[in-house]
Design goal:
Layout (H helix, E strand, L loop, with lengths): L5 E3 L10 H12 L6 H7 L2 H11 L11 H12 L4 E8 H11 L4 E5 L7 H12 L5 E4 L5 H6 L3 E4 L5 H6 L4 E5 L6 H8 L12 H5 L6 H28 L1 H6 L7 H4 L4 H22 L2 H19 L7 H21 L5 H28 L16 H23 L2 H6 L9 H17 L7 H7 L1 H17 L1
Parallel strand pairs: 1-2, 1-4, 2-3, 4-5, 5-6
Helix pairs in contact: 1-3, 2-3, 11-14, 11-15, 11-16, 15-16, 16-17, 17-18, 17-20, 18-20, 20-22
């Protein structure tokens, strides 16, 4: 008796992603102003949309998140001499490249501009080729139920709720494969909860005005902290969805949940607008109107950074410094406290220095891997390292100069009984900035410098002493 073919689906099965959404996100990233063109393509049918997106989107198929469990299963079937078929609703332009890259399939069935090979159409093609119950089928979604019904054996991969139960009711399920688990830890990484610590900058105006003991203002600050965090997480998710290709080329970012396929693009497209709706709704309802304005500016600047500014030399680091400073501005409007020029200037120079640390670190990693050109998704070359280092250290030292000038300001003298103590903070800050840049130069700064500081005992000690000095000056 002849061995029946082993048919494998692509999206959500062999591939821990969806090619239609992959190509859609790549298109939005490269041509954000043409986003609404996709609606006209969709009006001509889903197959037409897939064909257009596949043709205009740049996707490196070698970097896509393939499921190693399914690849091992296919290889095992091939070793027995069995015929393996890739049958997918994705467009043949991308599917043929994937099949060529993996070199695992004897036959490829896919969509064209005229035919969307999903659901009943896929079932009909397979039955026509191999007969009813003449093939085994590996799939994952509700669209695959009709195909499993005509298959000899059904293999169900990482099914959505209800799909496994519906498949089992057919009585031909051979195996249910759970190769991906999505829990709080994965979502925490996607939301980048650890980055919320940056929102502590909201409390800087409260500290500068010596109002930290005001419980009414402190409560407003906590609300602003949470809403800013939700907004930032929504932006992080959108940024990761737009940066899938670049993240997969990065030595560490390729492990991010969306780039690695731990989380689906669909879940991200649902999550980020919900987070933004809660953030902006809460801001409008619970906090002063000016805070909502600052939050909108923060979001628009972040969106601009994700879509374009991060790929423009110099503008990217200035934008990052502004995003940090906007958190301080948000705190001032929440608490109704006036910001001094000293706080704003100190923030811009300090965070410009840290933004340049981040870029220097990325270039340094690229150079260590033998890349002597531009790094992916950035408008910098490895030859820029020396210049970035000069600008970064200069910016950091300028923040110390601002602190020195602040000590002799008339407003400072009225706030502190012993302002001369603040002088002690200057050498402390000089030490920290110099140490950060030397560590970066040595290739030891492989993450966001703010996150690094939170895990670095010396940085934490410097921060504690910095606060103690200001307390002594009161």
């Amino acid at each position: 008796m002849a061995v029946i073919p082993f048919v494998v689906d692509l999206d959500g099965t062999l591939l821990r992603s969806d090619l239609l959404l992959e190509s859609g996100m790549a298109f939005v990233r490269s041509q954000p102003l043409n986003l609404f063109r996709t609606l006209s393509w969709l009006r001509q049918g889903k197959a037409h949309l897939k064909a257009h997106l596949a043709g205009v989107s740049e996707i490196d198929v070698s970097l896509l998140p393939y499921d190693p469990v399914i690849i091992s299963m296919i290889e095992e079937q091939r070793r027995t001499g069995r015929r393996v078929v890739l049958a997918t609703a994705s467009h043949h332009f991308l599917v043929d490249r994937i099949a060529g890259h993996l070199a695992l399939f004897d036959q490829v069935l896919s969509s064209s501009a005229e035919r969307n090979l999903s659901g009943t159409r896929k079932r009909d093609v397979l039955v026509e080729l191999y007969g009813e119950k003449g093939f085994d089928y590996v799939g994952n979604s509700r669209d695959d139920l009709v195909v499993w019904r005509s298959a000899n054996l059904a293999y169900v991969v990482n099914p959505l709720p209800g799909v496994e139960r519906a498949a089992r009711s057919m009585g031909n399920v051979e195996q249910v494969i759970h190769s991906r688990s999505v829990g709080f830890k994965v979502w925490s990484k996607a939301l980048r909860i650890h980055q919320w610590v940056k929102n502590a900058l909201i409390f800087v105006p409260l500290l500068a005005a010596h109002q930290l003991g005001n419980l009414s203002l402190l409560w407003k600050g906590v609300l602003a902290f949470l809403l800013f965090g939700l907004c930032a997480s929504g932006v992080y998710i959108l940024n990761d969805l737009l940066d899938l290709g670049d993240d997969r080329r990065h030595p560490t970012k390729h492990r991010r949940p969306f780039a690695s396929g731990e989380l689906s693009i669909q879940s991200g497209l649902v999550a980020f607008p919900i987070l933004l709706a809660i953030a902006f709704g809460g801001a409008i309802w619970l906090l002063p109107g000016q805070f909502s304005t600052v939050l909108v500016i923060y979001y628009l600047l972040t969106l601009g950074y994700s879509l374009a500014l991060k790929r423009v030399m110099a503008l990217d680091v200035v934008a990052l410094a502004l995003l940090y400073t906007l958190r301080i501005v948000a705190g001032s409007v929440v608490f109704g406290l006036e910001l001094t020029v000293w706080i704003l200037a100190f923030s811009m120079f300090m965070f410009l220095s840290l933004a340049l640390v981040k870029r220097y670190s990325e270039l340094s990693v690229a150079l260590s891997k033998g890349n002597e050109g531009a790094i992916s998704g950035r408008d910098y070359f490895t030859v820029d390292l020396e210049m970035l280092s000069s600008m970064g250290t200069a910016s950091g030292y300028l923040s110390v100069l601002v602190l020195v000038l602040y000590i002799h300001d008339g407003g400072t003298l009225s706030l502190y009984s012993h302002p001369q103590f603040i002088w002690l903070a200057c050498p402390l800050l000089l030490f920290w900035i110099t140490r950060i840049w030397i560590l970066t130069h040595r290739g030891l700064m492989n993450e966001d410098p703010v996150v690094f500081a939170l895990h670095d005992y010396i940085s934490l000690a410097v921060g504690g002493l910095f606060c103690l000095i200001f307390w002594m000056a009161i």
